[in-house]
Amino acid sequence: MADTTGIAVTGASGRMGQMLIRTIAQTDGVHLAAAIERAGHTWVGQDVGQAMGGQANGVIVTDDASRAIAAAQVVIDFTAPEATLAFADLCAQAGVAHVIGTTGMTDAQIAQLEPAARKCAIVRAGNMSLGVNLLVQLTKRVAAALDEDFDIEVIEAHHHHKVDAPSGTALMLGEAAAEGRGVALNDVRDSGRDGITGARKRGDIGFAAIRGGDIVGEHDVMFAGPGERIVLRHMATDRLVFARGAIRAAKWTQGRAPGAYDMLDVLGLNG
Predict the structure, then answer these.
(1) Model pTM score
(2) How far, in Å, CA of 83 to CA of 72, rounded?
(3) Which residues are annotated as a binding site for (S)-2,3,4,5-tetrahydrodipicolinate?
(4) Which residues are catalytic?
(5) Is the per-residue pLDDT at 126 higher than 90?
(6) What's the confidence (pLDDT) of residue 192?
(7) What are the chain's domains?
(8) Which of 146, 156, 173, 238 makes the best surface tag, with the fewest CB within 10 Å?
């Protein structure tokens, strides 16, 4: 496996962690170098393949993130903001690329990634799927073509376990719409409607979040104008699309200069 890219997966026991591990095993050019879990987790010390209910694959789940990351060429990380910041520091110390699919990060937390990005390649995206990143580009173009007579609403739906709202993908879409209009999202964002809120402010970009069942991820961007509506939609029915995108990003980072990148860079859609 010396000629393949070694990937360390954080949060190995989670839904995305397990999906990544299965997908890595089925993908040419990569191999699972390490499976990381938090200290005290029941999987630590077990073969990750067996812990997942399958055959042994020789990779023992570890809580020694520093050693595990040093043994890999790239880390794929779908955990939580504070954990992601800690992993970013370790990746920077080891000079190992970091692919971040963690959502719910604040602007301040994202800014904390900047020192690490000076030492390693970091790909961070609210959504790793090809379809969503194409939707981001379409949203920007449509927003640029329409004036404020068209109200913009971003509607997203996810499973009932999701802890952050709006979703990272919804915010990506909102940012794209704001960029298309030449405004800052923070100046026009409206995601807190409840009670008597008054009329909608012209030019605002609204967000609505739905949580229920096992919805993987659905996102609509609605441009509602006088007498007509344009709706751009993406529906994910399997987390496999996110795993494949993250692995594609992991491969892309190899040989890449340190810096902060996103999936548009990976897909060649920037510029």
Answers:
(1) 0.83
(2) 18
(3) 159, 168-169
(4) 158, 162
(5) no
(6) 83
(7) 5-124+239-266 (3.40.50.720), 130-236 (3.30.360.10)
(8) 238
